[in-house]
Amino acid sequence: MTAVAAGERPAGRRGARALVDLVFRARELSLVAALAVLVAVTTAASPNFLSAQGVKDIFLNTSILALLAVGQSVVVITRNIDLSVGSVVGLVAFTTGRLLADGGHGVLTALVFGVAIGAACGLVNGLLVSFCRVPALVVTLGTLYVVQGLGHYIAHGRQINAADLPPGLLSLGNEGVLGVPYLAIVTLAVMAATGYYLRSYPSGRDLYAVGSSPEAARLAGVPVRRRVLAAYLFSGVLAGLAGVMWLARFGTVVADPARGWELLVVSAVVVGGVAIVGGVGTVYGAVLGALLLTTIGSALVVLKVNAFWQQALTGALLLLAITVDRVLAVRVARLLRRRSVRYG
Question: Has UniProt tagged this entry with the keyword Lipid biosynthesis (predicted)?
Answer without folding.
Answer: no
